[in-house]
Write a structure and sequence with these properties.
CATH architecture: 3-Layer(aba) Sandwich
GO biological process, one term: methylation
Structural class: alpha/beta
Helix content: 40-55%
Strand order of the largest sheet: 3-2-1-4-5-7-6
Number of strands: 7
Protein name: Methyltransferase domain-containing protein
CATH topology: Rossmann fold
Strand content: 15-25%
Keywords: Methyltransferase, S-adenosyl-L-methionine, Transferase
Distance between the termini: 37 Å
Largest sheet: 7 strands, mixed
GO molecular function: methyltransferase activity
Number of domains: 1
Shape: globular
Radius of gyration: 18 Å
Family: Belongs to the class I-like SAM-binding methyltransferase superfamily. gTMT family.
């Protein structure tokens, strides 16, 4: 799975950056806002999701942060910039880590934001090394989520904060059609499975975290898959464009384009959900 995730983000790095900017994650809108209709810009929305998670998790300014699944560094640059945090970012993709370091240099925060190709479940960082463990849309790629929560607890200092934003699935049993939709999303997005937001809360508590709280942001982020936001249609200029991409990068790249309609259907039907979680390592 790690190899597949690494390859997926290596071959789609420029596609995500071209279409979604520096944030490889959902945007956050107020009720009634829609991209392309009333001026709600997609880049402003992805920036806002970072701010919303900072506020929800009460991330302290100046914290030492581990960014799990850092992508090309968008959230980390906000943490290292306006918040004055020191950030270590980890990703399975060497290309993402290199691009994130370039962006940190350009933003003038390379002294506070560094990015590495590392497995989030075996980073080698010592116990109690961080004030905050931050994970935006990375838990879906981890085959062992209880191991993530245990590892996050180990690396946090007593009183430290866990801040997570994640795709999830509706809690409870799914019918056959819903299961098939989830299977297709997982296949095209290179993910082993989904957990419900409620299951994430249970896993965090079982790992030893206290003060575990979650909020459902499904309605606020669903517009991320509106064609006017994702802008994937600009690549769909006929079969020759898609064929050339597949020849150049391999057929796996086509999953990037298939995911849009599937995710939109998932949010429209309530099968796919999205939420944020915060928790604290006990002690002070």
């Amino acid at each position: 799975m790690n190899t597949a995730v690494e390859r997926y983000y290596d071959i789609t790095l420029d596609l995500y950056e071209d279409l979604w900017g520096e944030h490889v994650h959902h945007g956050f809108w107020d009720p009634g806002e829609a991209p392309g209709l009333n001026g709600a810009d997609r880049h402003a929305a992805t920036d806002r999701l970072v701010r919303e998670l900072v506020d929800f998790a009460e991330v302290p300014a100046g914290s030492k942060v581990l960014d799990v699944g850092c992508g090309i560094g968008g959230p980390a640059l906000h943490l290292a910039g306006p918040l004055g945090c020191t950030v270590e970012g980890v990703t399975l993709s060497a290309l993402q880590a290199a691009r994130a370091n370039e962006k940190a240099q350009a933003a003038g925060v390379a002294d506070r934001a560094r990015f590495h190709q590392l497995d989030a479940l075996s980073t080698g960082y010592p116990d109690q090394a961080f004030d905050v463990v931050w994970a935006v849309e990375s838990l879906m790629h981890l085959p062992d989520r209880p191991a993530f929560f245990a590892e996050a607890l180990r690396m946090l200092r007593p009183g430290g904060t866990l801040a997570v934003a994640t795709w999830s699935v509706r809690d409870g049993e799914l019918d056959a059609d819903e299961q098939e939709l989830v299977r297709q999303v997982l296949q095209h997005q290179v993910m082993p499975d989904f957990s419900s937001l409620e299951e994430h809360v249970r896993q965090a508590g079982a790992a030893g975290f206290t003060g575990v709280a979650a909020v459902d942001w499904s309605k606020e982020v669903a517009n991320s898959w509106d064609p006017g936001f994702a802008q994937i249609q600009q690549y769909e200029r006929g079969p020759s464009v898609m064929r050339d991409l597949a020849r150049e990068r391999g057929v796996d790249v086509l999953g990037f384009f298939h995911a849009g309609p599937l995710m939109k259907k998932g949010f429209d039907t309530g099968v796919i959900t999205y939420g944020a979680l915060r928790a604290t390592r006990p002690g002070s």
